[in-house]
Amino acid sequence: MSVEDGVWLNEPVTWRREHGALHVVTDRATDFWRETHYGFTRDTGHFLGVMSVGDFTAQVRVQAQYEDLYDQAGLMVRVSPRQWVKAGIEWSDGLPMISSVLTVDRSDWATAPYGHDPGDFWLRATVAAGVLRLQVSSDGVHWPLMRLCPFPAGPYSVGPMCCTPERAGLRVKFSDFTVGGPMGKALHDLS
Q: Which SUPFAM superfamilies does this entry report, sorted A to Z (predicted)?
């Protein structure tokens, strides 16, 4: 499957498909979040999802130039408005952070400084046997573990995600998006 098979949740005003890539410019005040700390629920971020009935591995290359607080782009896996994960680079405290938000009724948020080029990175999500594995790569070859956690049963919608809670205008290019059967690699196999 590819971006051509995707269906928008919160279609942005400005986007296009070109040579197998998806180009998006974020709308103002877009976000995905449920309750924790801030007390509000937002389900307004841009997400182009393809369906996977069973277990899968998805990956995507993300290119963007983050500028403002909470600018973010990456990959989302969604079961429902109350069950999802988003992962990617998010601008926070003046730095590009590798970030993931797991939501099962309420959102958590995990961040860490990203030591590579935040303007060009890869993400991989594998869901198999009720477990989600997120991996990040600076080159599309070496895939360190980012997160491992239980995850609700599908069917799943998976694909590129981007948001700008504080502004509009983040330009993002998503490319090399694929979804297929779960890779089945050992946990510490970083290929």
A: Concanavalin A-like lectins/glucanases
Structure tokens at 108: 């958590």
Domain ranges of the chain: 3-180
Digit-by-digit pLDDT tens for the chain (191 residues) are 667 889 999 999 999 999 999 999 999 999 999 998 888 899 999 999 999 989 999 999 999 999 999 999 999 999 999 999 999 999 999 999 999 999 999 999 999 999 999 999 999 999 999 999 999 999 999 999 999 999 999 899 999 999 999 999 999 999 999 999 999 999 999 99
Residue identified by tokens 């607080």 is: 69
Is the domain covering 3-180 a CATH 2.30.30.110 domain? Answer: no
